């Protein structure tokens, strides 16, 4: 390989643990939650299975204005040695510092980035882009949809270009984004927002389709591909994984660098090992 050639990086399989009140939960489109066990025990299980990374999301922290789940992170980091990303309730650089000290490797930021986009640049300057993940919860919008009630977001002149007006029926597909664990819609163009976050120093995008979350109908491949092609940083596809074929599609057709799954792993429909063996049999480079 010449020095000018880029190395081919292995694709990553990432279980996601949505945490509420100290328990792992799983729902559909962020609601109708059901219990899926203890977060630390789940983390140990996935570590033993060979998951590439793990993501903890405290899904009600921002909405309930609570502190981040440091105790869960500390307990997990003691026994789990794969990279750990934590999101939910991160409001300050001190929050990020505390999480990193507790043992996580990356932080996932959504609501605070929308409130103050330059928080991402400050975080990247202080801790490095490699640990700053911007979470984007995206939902398809159209002129005939109820999303017209979404909050307009254009307070800063330099971010006006990411604001959207709802398209009429038949016009181009657009995705708006939400904050506060899916509770508030913002009329922000998800694709342009991803690029803006990259420009401000984000090292990775965690992209969740709110339309597909928990449905097991497969990732929103059009959305995933649009953002993967818009940015040069890694994109994690999330929302909708129901079969091993969906993981394959996320990589090949969605052009994602990693795929996130919850239900299929939490409820033992497939193991991480089975997923990796399937992907390798289909020609996807993964670590076994």
Q: What composes the largest sheet? A: 8 strands, parallel, barrel
Order of helices and strands: EEEHEHHEHEHHEEEHEHEHEHH
Task: Give me the number of helical elements.
Answer: 11
How much helical structure, as a percent, in the residues? Answer: 25-40%
Shape: globular
Unreliable spans: 62-66, 144-149
The helix/strand class is alpha/beta
Largest sheet strand order: 1-4-5-6-7-10-11-12
Which whole number gives the mean pLDDT? 85
Instruction: Please tally the β strands and state the result.
Output: 12
Oligomer: single chain
Residue fraction in strands: 15-25%
Radius of gyration: 18 Å
Distance between the termini: 23 Å
């Amino acid at each position: 390989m010449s020095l000018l050639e880029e190395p081919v990086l292995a694709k990553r399989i990432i279980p996601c643990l949505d945490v509420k009140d100290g328990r792992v939960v799983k729902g559909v489109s962020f609601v109708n939650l059901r219990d899926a066990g203890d977060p630390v025990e789940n983390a140990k299980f996935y570590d033993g299975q060979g998951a590439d990374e793990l993501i903890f999301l405290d899904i009600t922290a921002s909405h309930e204005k609570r502190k981040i789940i440091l105790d869960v992170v500390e307990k997990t980091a003691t026994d789990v040695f794969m990279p750990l990303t934590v999101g939910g309730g991160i409001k300050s650089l001190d929050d990020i510092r505390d999480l990193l000290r507790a043992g996580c490797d990356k932080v996932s930021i959504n609501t605070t980035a929308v409130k103050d986009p330059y928080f991402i640049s400050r975080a990247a300057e202080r801790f490095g882009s490699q640990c700053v993940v911007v979470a984007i919860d995206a939902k398809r919008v159209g002129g005939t949809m109820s999303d017209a009630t979404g909050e307009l977001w254009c307070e800063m002149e330099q971010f006006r270009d990411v604001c959207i007006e709802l398209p009429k029926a038949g016009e181009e597909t657009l995705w708006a984004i939400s904050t506060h664990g899916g509770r508030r819609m913002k009329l922000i163009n998800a694709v342009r927002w991803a690029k803006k976050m990259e420009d401000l120093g984000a090292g990775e995008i965690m992209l969740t389709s709110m339309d597909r979350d928990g449905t097991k109908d497969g990732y929103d491949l059009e959305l995933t591909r649009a953002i993967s092609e818009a940015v040069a940083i890694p994109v994690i596809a999330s929302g909708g994984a129901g079969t091993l074929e969906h993981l394959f599609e996320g990589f090949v057709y969605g052009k994602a660098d990693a795929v996130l799954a919850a239900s299929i792993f939490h409820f033992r429909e497939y193991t991480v090992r089975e997923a990796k063996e399937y992907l390798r049999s289909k020609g996807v480079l993964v670590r076994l």
